[in-house]
Amino acid sequence: MDATMVVPPWFEPLLTTSFFNVCRVHGDAARSECNMFCLDCNNEDAFCFYCRSSRHKDHRVIQIRRSSYHDVVRVSEIQKVLDISGVQTYVINSARVLFLNERPQPKSGKGVAHICEICGRSLLDPFRFCSLGCKGMSRRLVSSRHQQEEELREGSQQDMYPATPSPPASNARRRKGIPHRAPFAS
């Protein structure tokens, strides 16, 4: 997600959704953990296998998996809908995955060749980010920097061309008996 790429509306909700809760509707069923996310229903909560069949049958849905208590998504699913270049991938259970959000780790020590540009986590390969969340954060930082630069440019133009002051507000309800005369010229 470089500075020019448009972030899909489902990206932020995907990163902030809580997965692996028991479904409120299908809690008694065998596959009722909420590990699915719909890309077509913006801001939709995570849902289970049974909710997918009933409410999201014809939608683009990705399945979230767990690795060491962290949410991951298969590369084969997410790369169809999002630019994941620069994000470290891992092979877990013979499937290539990437982490949704950064994982806490002490800052990398000396001798580490590759680190995440956002959180400083050590990386195995020459990637820029440890997770989709860190890549998204880099985009927000770039976007914020561009916005600040734009505001600075506008501010310097305003200094060059000061705005004309607005006329004073007229007092529509003048008090009776107070004369409003022009001042005497000296």
TrEMBL record:
InterPro entries: PLATZ. Pfam families: PLATZ (PF04640). Residues 145-186 are annotated as: Disordered. Residues 146-156 have a biased composition (Basic and acidic residues). PANTHER family: PLATZ TRANSCRIPTION FACTOR FAMILY PROTEIN. This is PLATZ transcription factor family protein. It comes from Vigna mungo.
